[in-house]
Each structure stands twice: as C-alpha cells, then as structure tokens.
Amino acid sequence: MTDISADQWQSLKEHATEAMRKAYVPYSHFPVGVAALTDDGRIVTGANIENASHGVGLCAECSLISNLVMTGGGKLTAFACVDGDGERLMPCGRCRQLLFEHSAPGMLLDTISGIKTIEQVLPDAFGPRTLDAYRRNHTT
Ligand code: THU
C-alpha cells in the first residue's frame, strides 16, 4: 500500500471534479468524475459517457481505464470518484472489478466511509490470479 498525502488526495478530487464536468449524461443527468494516481506518478481521469442504447453507456471508470492503458499503462495506486456536486461517490460493483484488474496491491480509495483499500471494497476478488491458478492446474 502506498500512503498518499492530504494534498495528493485534494489534487485527485480536483482532477475528478474537472473530469466530471466533461461527462456526457443526457439520459441520467448524473455526471460522475474519477481520477487516479498511477505507480509512475501520472494522474489519469475519466467521466461517464452515456448512450441512447442505455445499457451500453460507459461508467466514468471505463473511461479512466481506457485513458490509463492508452497513456502508458501501469497500475493504479489511489483513486477518487465524485458526483455532480463534487461529493465522494462509491464506484459501482462492476467498476470495482474494472479497477481491481489494474490496481496495485493495496490501492487506496477515498470512500464515503473513509480511506479503504481495493481489497476491502472488493473482498475475495475474482481476478487474473484466479485464471493463472486454474491454468497452472490444467496444463498438459
Ligand atoms: N456511474 C459511473 O459512471 N460510475 C459509477 O461507479 C456509478 C455509476 C454512472 C453510470 C450512469 O451514467 C450514471 O452514473 C447513473 O447511473
């Protein structure tokens, strides 16, 4: 786990709020912005991007993960999510899974109930190691 300073949390929250203003939300009118710190010191952001075919709308976290991969990859070490008022918001279940795949062990989240790790908000997660373990036992 990488501890981050109050200033760094503030900066992540500001980046998330700025990203939130770019959300495309003509259907829910519920903008979401996210920002995360990477293990090589970048800040990546995202906003939700909805669609007339409602089920294919993208959560803000999808947009952040795309930005992460397209700007050099790496692992996320700290994450913040805000709603349209710039208030803390919990990532939905699907997005916790998305974040888990790209998180450094112990990635921190600024949650509505304090700073938590990714393992705390997605206990006993299914992930790449689950697949690796299965493959190890089934190679001929
Ligand atoms: N939303 C996100 O972008 N991330 C979350 O973690 C929670 C929900 C979006 C999806 C949809 O565009 C809007 O919030 C209302 O559900």
Tell me what you see in this structure:
This protein is of the alpha+beta class. The protein has five helices and five strands; from the N terminus they run αββαβαββαα. It has one domain: Cytidine Deaminase, domain 2 (3-Layer(aba) Sandwich), CATH 3.40.140. The protein is 35% helix and 22% strand. It has a five-stranded mixed beta sheet with strand order 2-1-3-4-5. The chain is globular, with a radius of gyration of 15 Å. The model has no long low-confidence stretch (mean pLDDT 97). It binds tetrahydrodeoxyuridine. The site of tetrahydrodeoxyuridine (THU) has 13 residues, from helix 2.
Spatial order of strands in the largest sheet: 2-1-3-4-5
User: Could you spell the SSE succession in H and E letters?
Assistant: HEEHEHEEHH
Q: Tell me how many strands there are.
A: 5
Percent range of helical residues:
25-40%
Write down the overall mean pLDDT: 97
Nearest-angstrom radius of gyration? 15 Å
Based on the structure given, which CATH architecture is correct? 3-Layer(aba) Sandwich
In terms of structural class, how would the helical and strand content be classed? alpha+beta
Beta content: 15-25%
Termini separation: 37 Å
The CATH class? Alpha Beta
CATH fold type: Cytidine Deaminase, domain 2
Largest sheet: 5 strands, mixed
Total DSSP helices: 5
Bound molecules: tetrahydrodeoxyuridine
Spans of 5+ residues with little confidence (pLDDT < 50)?
Answer: none
**CATH homologous superfamily descriptor:** Cytidine Deaminase, domain 2
Shape label: globular
How many discrete structural domains? 1
